[in-house]
Amino acid sequence: MRRSLNPRRRSAVALVAAVVSGVVLATVPASAAIGGPGIGDPYFPDDGNSGYDVSHYDVRIAYDPARTDHLDGDTTVTARALTDLDRFSLDLKGFTVASVTVNGTPAKAFSRSGAHELVITPARPVVKGTRFAVRVTYAGKPDAEGWHTLKSGGAYVAGEPHAATSWYPANDHPSDKATFALAATVPDGWTVVGNGLPGPATVKNGRKTFLWFEDKPLATYLSTVAIDRFTVHRGKTAAGTPVITAYSPDAVIDPDAEAEQTEILDFLTAKFGPYPFSSAGAIVVGARKEPNGGPLALETQSRPTYSGMLFDASVVHENTHQWFGDSVSFKDWRDGCIAECFAQYAGQLWEEHKGADLDDDYYRPEVEESKDDPSFWSTKLYDPGRGKELDSALYSKGSLMLHALRRTVGDDAFFGTLKTWTRDHAYGNASFRQFEALAAKVSGRDLKGFFEAWVDGTVIPAEKYLYPGSLGTPAG
After folding, report:
1. Residue 403: which residues within 8 A CB-CB, separation 6 or more?
2. Percent of the chain with pLDDT over 90
3. 422 phi/psi in degrees, rounded to 5
4. Where residue 290 falls among pLDDT bands split at 50, 70, 90?
């Protein structure tokens, strides 16, 4: 997600079948588990369930923009049991749940618990190691935490750290990533845009169904659907990746900004390694109905979502997330720096590419202006604290930390570390602690003091860490 702190494959797309064949259901001992009531995140202890690992979401929805208070959903979650399960839960906010089946058999029971738990008791327990498919049908008003309505009559999904449970049941934590299929039915004349690549659309009885498929695992908060009377433009990056950009009727279409989007994707590929997904582009939504509703921009996987228009700072930031945060995702929400620190620093890399002198124009003035502001330095970059998982320090202090690291180890080691990181952890999860170890390994330097000062410290770093390498000694 971007904060305005600085002005400055598949070849054929198809939905996976809802029911998995060959699943074993068997009697298990009386000690069968429920699966952890949360996945283990210290910041969001109720999120997710530790009893299974999701491999795929098949989300089917129907939405009529004339009825903004109603969505019909039919979602199948395919997973592998990590323990014997006589009960388990999915995360879902609101809605009336009509039915739940496990491997095609009606659940013995299902109930709601807490703010977002759908607790399911299968007809027979699921054995550890087996794959199972949970199908949930539901209807009602989507939750406003993730689902946002537009003045044009359309709607879109964007939110961090939560958004998915506003429109489908999920194991809602970044550590459980899965591929994602979407089938969305809307009145003919409206268009649906989602993650990944589109499949063929079909029209029946005045309603049109759009298919989208993301074939690389995604964290649930990065899934999206956008419904509007979009104008859709198509292009390609230098490497041939399809670029699909959709504009709401009241969004600004700027051909120069759209061309720069492709230039930025090519630039980031040169810095970070091959673009990680089968498609790229943007969803540019117009004015929202609700005041202050949703983020100004979010790194929804393969196709970031923007409000109003494309502009370079935001396009750089959200597309950097495709490598840092989307492909390589958090282990838990203490690890926000592996996304936001890098995405914010990429803005400075882009300015440098365009001719700015970062030493003079960005780093030094920022440090000097913040020297006498203890609050600027007081937040840790790893494990900043519950409620601070997206603290402004990750953007401001975090981008300074990365520039100081670059000057400490030199460009070859710094950019070599970034490319190794995005390659070795592609489509998985990692912690900033792993990045620290990798940076030390690639550079061949002891960086313990540097990271203790910048990442774990709560005061301004000592001058040897604040002004390393060519940054020299501060004037005066």
Report:
1. 345, 348, 358, 362, 363
2. 85
3. -70, -25
4. confident
SS3 16: coil
In contact, 166 and 144? CB cutoff 8 Å: yes
Contacts of 24 (CB under 8 A, 6+ apart): 127, 130
Under a CB-based contact definition with an 8 Å cutoff, are residues 86 and 32 in contact?
A: yes
Please list the alpha-helical segments (H only) found in 147-283: 255-272
Contacts of 221 (CB under 8 A, 6+ apart): 159, 160, 161, 162, 163, 164, 172, 174
Instruction: With both helix axes pointing from N to C terminus, report the angle between 255-272 and 312-320 in degrees, rounded to the nearest 10.
Output: 40
d(CA 42, CA 424): 26
* Single-letter residue type at 185: T
Distance CA 179, CA 429 (A): 15
Exposure letters 337-350 (e unless 16+ CB within 10 A, then b): bbbbbbbbbbbbbb
Confidence of residue 96 (pLDDT cuts 50, 70, 90): very high
Contacts of 288 (CB under 8 A, 6+ apart): 148, 149, 150, 151, 294, 307
Burial class (CB in 10 A: 0-12, 13-18, 19+), 249: middle
> How many C-beta atoms surround the C-beta of residue 13 within 10 A?
18
Q: What are phi and psi of 313, to 5 degrees?
A: -60, -45
Q: Please report the beta strands in 229-312, taking only residues with DSSP state E, as ranges in sequence order.
A: 231-236, 242-247, 280-285, 297-298, 305-307
Mean pLDDT of the chain: 91
Task: Kindly tell me the sign of the dihedral angle through the C-alpha atoms of 312, 318, 324, 328.
Answer: negative
Lowest mean pLDDT among 56-60, 77-81, 114-118, 190-194: 114-118
User: Is it the case that residue 341 has pLDDT exceeding 80?
Assistant: yes
Q: For residue 398, what are the β-bridge partners?
A: none
* Per-residue confidence (pLDDT) for residue 37, from 0 to 100: 67
Measured CA to CA, the distance from residue 357 to residue 376 in angstroms comes to 23
- The pLDDT tens digits for 215-239 are 999 999 999 999 999 999 999 999 9
